[in-house]
Amino acid sequence: MIDTHAYDGAPEAEFRDYVALLKPRVMSLVVFTAFVGLWVAPVAVHPFVAFCSVLFIALGGGASGALNMWYDADIDAVMRRTQKRPIPSGRVTGGEALGLGLGLTVIAVMMLGLAANWFAAGFLAFTIFFYVVIYTIWLKRWTPQNIVIGGAAGAFPPMIGWACATGGISIESLLMFALIFFWTPPHFWALALFMKEDYHKAGVPMLTVTHGRAVTRRHIFGYTLVLAPFAIWLGLTPVGGPVYLAVAVVLNALFILGGWRVMRRNEDAAIADDYAVEKRVFKLSLYYLFLHFLALLVQHWVGTW
């Protein structure tokens, strides 16, 4: 299923191609949420230890990306938005991606254990396993709930950051997990509404493919309703406060309103304006998560001052 040999006549790989294997845009979210989880924790961490911890969490995220691209090379070759990735385009072989992913996994886990603590390192190892084995290899091609259950992998980084500082788990880190976990389905389903054909061609059982767009629209709205209480609850914990709560209330009101508008749309109207509403909600979802975690940072700095 996975070709580990370079394509004949394929361009020679450049450094940026190996960087692309690490999914740098996804890694940036991993780095930011892990940093916030570490920095707002109630235990002071030396800046150098914090830097090393976030660096090795980032390497672990990059390892997950490389292993995901290795296994999903056949799907990526079919989907329009992924055809130019390093493996489908022939610039990097599957074997190279596999080797890079496994090597970075070992380095990231071992070095995080030495830099922070072994609980955090074990948590990072479990996260990589969950993303690659549970989500990529098993859930993604098997169930329309792939993005729901598999979304846990993307929600673990702030908990790992928190664990780097405290050596454990708390209600605050669990709520940061919940914020990302319940945000993931409406974020990806909004994308899937105007990218359905890609998933259909690749045989990925996204909810839009298995149950249709109308059901997907209802699920998006439902998850925005489920998400909001967890976002507000986080603001009532010791890491929250008035700054965070103000941001959370506004963003969740906008997200619920966007989900409502998506649910009320029919396909004829969506096609007529090229899914303009769905694209706006998807864009809002990108700002939603970033601004929540930025608000946690600002709240922490305000509280410290």
UniProtKB/TrEMBL annotation:
Keywords, ordered alphabetically: Cell membrane, Heme biosynthesis, Membrane, Transferase, Transmembrane, Transmembrane helix
One Gene Ontology CC term in the entry: plasma membrane
Molecular function terms from GO: protoheme IX farnesyltransferase activity
One of the GO BP terms on file: heme O biosynthetic process
Subunit details: Interacts with CtaA.
Function in brief: Converts heme B (protoheme IX) to heme O by substitution of the vinyl group on carbon 2 of heme B porphyrin ring with a hydroxyethyl farnesyl side group.
Protein name, as recorded: Protoheme IX farnesyltransferase
